[in-house]
Amino acid sequence: MTPEPELVEVEPTPTAVIRGSVPVTEITSFYDRSFTEVAAVLGRQGVSPRGTFGRYLAPPADVIELEVGFVVDRAVEADGDVVASTLPGGRVARLIFHGAYDGLGEAWDGLMTWVGDQGLAPAGPVWEVYVTEPTPQTDPSTLRTDLFCPVA
């Protein structure tokens, strides 16, 4: 069962990402390529990864504007498609989702409904932190993804 959303304060966090405008049908391959390329850059620069995420820079459409990468211990130097970025600090609505990735759309709908029910409004790009790293042996029902929506 997915816990109820909550309001929390988060600190700005440095990230290393690849940005893209990606057709929905290519999103999985973009994630895979991005994680591989960013991890290689982190290794070359001696930067420690602290988790993976995807940040959606515009409302969902047939083409998704996003950045995908790792939370890191310090800023990276640009290298190829990999650039430094930041997850913003401030007040966010957070939902901890347990389950397969194909349930994320419904989880996001629930979080956005909850935000409105609280008399709040989204205040910037949203992001997902992939707490559980999937493997071919992973039971999808055991995956944990934390959803974040800045609010005003």
TrEMBL record:
Residues 3-152 form the AraC effector-binding domain. SUPFAM superfamilies: Probable bacterial effector-binding domain (SSF55136). Pfam families: GyrI-like. It comes from the Bacteria. This is AraC family transcriptional regulator. It comes from Ornithinimicrobium pratense.
